[in-house]
Amino acid sequence: MSSIKEVAKQAHVSVATVSRVLNNDPVVKPATKNKVLQVIKEMNYKPNLLAKNLRKQASRTVVMVLPSMSNPYFSEIARGAQAAAYDKGYNIIIGTIESKRWILDTYINMLKTNLAEGIVFVSSSVSKELLETLVDEYSVVLCTEYYPGINAACVAIDNKKAGYEAARELIRRGHTHIAYIAGSSASSSVAARIEGYKEALNEAGIPFRPELIAGAKNKFEHVKEIVNGILGQGMQIDGILTHSDLQASYVLKGIKEKSIGLSDEVGLVSFDGTFVAEITNPTLTSIVQPLYDLGYTSVCKLIEKLQGESGDEEEGLILLPHHLEVRET
Amino acid sequence: MSSIKEVAKQAHVSVATVSRVLNNDPVVKPATKNKVLQVIKEMNYKPNLLAKNLRKQASRTVVMVLPSMSNPYFSEIARGAQAAAYDKGYNIIIGTIESKRWILDTYINMLKTNLAEGIVFVSSSVSKELLETLVDEYSVVLCTEYYPGINAACVAIDNKKAGYEAARELIRRGHTHIAYIAGSSASSSVAARIEGYKEALNEAGIPFRPELIAGAKNKFEHVKEIVNGILGQGMQIDGILTHSDLQASYVLKGIKEKSIGLSDEVGLVSFDGTFVAEITNPTLTSIVQPLYDLGYTSVCKLIEKLQGESGDEEEGLILLPHHLEVRET
DNA sequence: CTGAAAGCGCTTACAG
DNA sequence: CTGAAAGCGCTTACAG
């Protein structure tokens, strides 16, 4: 109802002055300012941000897209992202792709139609090709996955080191036939973790067997098939590394219901360290990622970029610390 | 860069005509339309929605606030909500309160500053007092929790019936000392489920013991304390109903690590039916709620309300079906 | 069927 | 220190 014009009339000043006090312009005389402030309060006036945004050609909104929310891994990242946006005075729109291209397009359209100023892509929620077309027109930050050759900041953990540490833990316990259930897509994090895993094997003098590596989705049936597939080739397995807590929980489930041909003596180390790792039985030993911080830092980087003048500095990889949490598996 | 004005110039028409083809106004001559469409494509023009929104005084955006995302219960609701928004051509902003009043205020401010047109509150993400001040000025829908006396549509399951069915299942198995770990807040769903529980006891001739009921948060420590507190009073427990899957998983954890004084013979029925119920060991018997549909329907109702002319019809309770899924506990 | 013009509610040089 | 005025990029009666 009430617009800036009515406030101006009531306060006997111009709309310009009202706008100035709204924006805390120090130039307005205290007496004037107080009068206007009082009228604003009396009228319960709230500025129409639709108008402000148009005038300033800025929505002060960023978007974060994630593959889904079904994995608590992503909700923690989203939580950090939300906090960062508020700390910086931005709105944030968090969306999940659910593997649907049209949903992704909806969010990208927000960029193109001025509804959002920048975007962070979490995990592999976007293809490299699409990214290439976006990167020089819009501000984008990557979270969790790195795309070499793409000029966008990426916030992640040191996946190679993490893969190394996870494998070393199993080796330390005496496991030598270590399967690696990687993520379902060929991503930079998968590649890096495998590299680290190989390094740990190498260090321990254990031969690398490519047959022990396979990707799987975060679905019970898929994980079961993959593990049984490896066993079916006559491979032994006495240790497993999984790409996520969820996958590890499925391994446990399969062992328990005997649909996966492994004994419960198998060593199991998962990635992520979400609450899932603590509610399984046994609880999961895992590489815990600083999920909240990953989300928080990604959004901060994005907003810095939006506010930076040149923005032409080299975009790089920002690594956040992870750690191995030894639990029961 | 390119605005409607430049498209108009290139196409040798007025901006009014460009606007008309943009909005699919059937009045424009096909030849003109095609010419404009072609220029739009050539220039890769995208309308500035900031301007459109201001002009139309509508953001075509709704918000959904949830207490948090840490419980997969909420992420499923959010998933449904997102889908509904897209199906209806709206943007949706999904936010989590994390028990912080200032975050809630941020989202409510989006309503007041014209950034959003309506809001759905999930679970007890808002107090009744605040709701009362919002309800006659803005479009609001409640999801999961009902506030009697508040004129807002509410989408939920029949909690009384669900509580009844959950309790009856335990009674059917021969359990007679059934504890009820309710939600942490005094909410309509808690009250209704307890009513149903009482009804089942009554039907079976089992006396109701108020000492067997206690609220708990979705925290391991809290659930442990509550259960042990009941046992400490000298109460027996051979069955438990929990407000959430998460709480049930904590009971299981406590039994396993012997920090909760219960045997694994205890009957356990949880509410929600999220993936948590399937990854615990044993898996959880639970009342599964149509989470996705709850979110989807809530947003649909909200948008209908926004689009409805009068909007003065009586707001009511919309009940969606649930069912009992018997698993291992 | 199309165009000229007003206006959505703000912000911000510019002048005083 | 304050105001008049232009303008952000659209939409939409109104006139023709």
Summarize this structure as a short list of keywords or feature phrases.
six-stranded mixed β-sheet; DNA-binding; Rossmann fold; homodimer; six-stranded parallel β-sheet; 329 residues; alpha/beta; 17% strand; 13 helices; 3 domains; 434 Repressor (Amino-terminal Domain); 12 strands
Summarize this, please?
Chains A, B: This is LacI family DNA-binding transcriptional regulator. The first copy, chain A, contains 13 helices and twelve strands.
Distance between the termini of chain A: 61 Å
How many runs of DSSP E, i.e. beta strands of chain A? 12
Q: Runs of chain A with pLDDT <50, length 5+?
A: none
Strand content of chain A: 15-25%
Number of domains of chain A: 3
- Note the overall shape of chain A: elongated
Instruction: Identify the CATH class of the largest domain in chain A.
Output: Alpha Beta
Largest interface: A-B, 48 and 48 residues
- Strand arrangement across the biggest beta sheet of chain A: 2-1-3-4-5-11
Main sheet makeup of chain A: 6 strands, parallel
- Please compute the radius of gyration of chain A using only Cα atoms: 25 Å
Order of helices and strands of chain A: HHHHEHEHEHEEHEHEHEHEHEHEE
In CATH terms, what is the fold-level topology of the largest domain in chain A? Rossmann fold
Keywords (chains A, B): DNA-binding, Transcription, Transcription regulation
Domain HTH lacI-type (chains A, B): 2-56
InterPro entries (chains A, B): HTH_LacI, Lambda_DNA-bd_dom_sf, Peripla_BP/Lac1_sug-bd_dom, Peripla_BP_I
GO molecular function (chains A, B): DNA-binding transcription factor activity; transcription cis-regulatory region binding
